[in-house]
Amino acid sequence: MSWQEFDYLASPDSGAEDKVYGVHWNAMMHHGLRTPCYYLIFKDGSTFYARDGVTGKVTSNSDFAALLNNRIPTMTSGGILHIVVGDYPVSTQINVIDDIIVEGEGDGTRLYLPNGQPSVAEKHRILDVYNHENVLIRDLCLDGNYTNNNVTGLAYEGTLRVVNSRHVDIERCTVKNARVFGIIVYSLSGTGEDVYDVNVYKCKVIECKWNGISYYHSTASSHAAPHDCLCKNNYVIGSCDIGLNMMATGSNNLPYDVTFKDNFVIADGTSGYGSTTDTWIPIRIEAGNDIKVIDNRVFNVKGTNTHSIFDSSVYDVQRLIITGNKCYGASYAAIRLIKSNDSVVKHNTIMTSGRGILVETDRNIIKDNVITSTYYGITETVGAAYNKYFLNNLENCTNKMSLSGSYYDVKDNIGYVTEAQGISTISSGNSSVVVTHGLAGTPDYIYVTGDHSQVASLYVDTITSTQFTVHTTYGNVTADRAVCWYAKFKP
Fold this sequence. Notes:
- The chain is mainly beta.
- The chain contains 2 helices and 47 strands.
- The strands form 5 sheets. The protein has a 22-stranded parallel sheet that branches. The chain has a 16-stranded mixed sheet with strand order 3-2-1-4-7-10-13-16-19-22-26-30-34-37-39-41, with helices on both faces.
- The longest helix has 16 residues, at 16-31.
- The relative contact order is 0.05.
């Protein structure tokens, strides 16, 4: 039987649900979708249907969420709940259980909140995974419809929420118009286990009124904070506060080993639930240890006091790795370290009208970054200590460095020279030569020497931020005499 003939599985004498099911069975076979599924979910007008992929029995309900919450608990391990293209109103959260797959057919499978949802948390979540494991959610569009659901009092709620769960993958979903968070992975007090191996891949998160994707740990939670998670290849745009976020409400038991990689984040949202201004942070690491921010593309086109990658001033962040990112825009600082100690910022490309990298903490390594800034390339504040700045390219910065901390080490930065050497010549008939040293500031140390007896005794004076003068005590030399010099500037 060819795939075109599957339409005839719905006989003229069967009910409307069978006819609709036949059409979508046809589509599933044609597009190579996974079959059989445990339940095939479809609609006919305002009625919603679940067809058992084994028995063929059809269940219907005028309430889409009620239909799914009735059918999902009957699914066995490995079962697939497949929702065909259509718009499906979600009047209350849909609860996802262990060991199942919930999938749609891409953006055409839209689950949305109806207008005027009451200010009750479960009425503003579309999918909820609470204390479960081995779950896959993919190829769905989840629409929070915040324009018609402008309520308050729902902090830390997500259109798609994962709480106290593990081994959960969210793939190729579009989450948009969330009243609070788009996707939140949450360690919360109460029933459940630690949160780990919860991954978000290739999702589009658009126009959320607080955060786009957030990993969050409540200080009240008795469970371990989120760890060993990956947020990769996602597209996040228009969240009013933060695009990608690692956050906590306490300093104990912080998140660790979470990676944000290869995401594309654009800051162009407007003020909303979590913000009274248009200030917007594409990536913020508020708390955690061994967090990695790798190879992301970050654009911040908002106004004053904006950042691109920012560790918050709330709790300590240890061993943060920020590498390979491309940061564009940000009027205050592209990358800012407020609480992170023992961190590495390297191989990033930055274009900003603010500070390229702002360091306010200790024992960090800043190296191999390429920075273009109309303000300062690298700034270190008073109180910071023991930071290292190596091999950064600051040639295209209006001001290269401003270092106000202590015990820092600066070496081999392009455009900000701290060590220089060369050979200059005292011309015949003269007793001195002016050397242009090329250092970033006035030298703190200068060493000069000559091979000929007429330049065996030398001294230096008139030392400035651009030049110094080398004299020989011999007097006017009788021929051109070479002198070697080495100069060092300590910022």
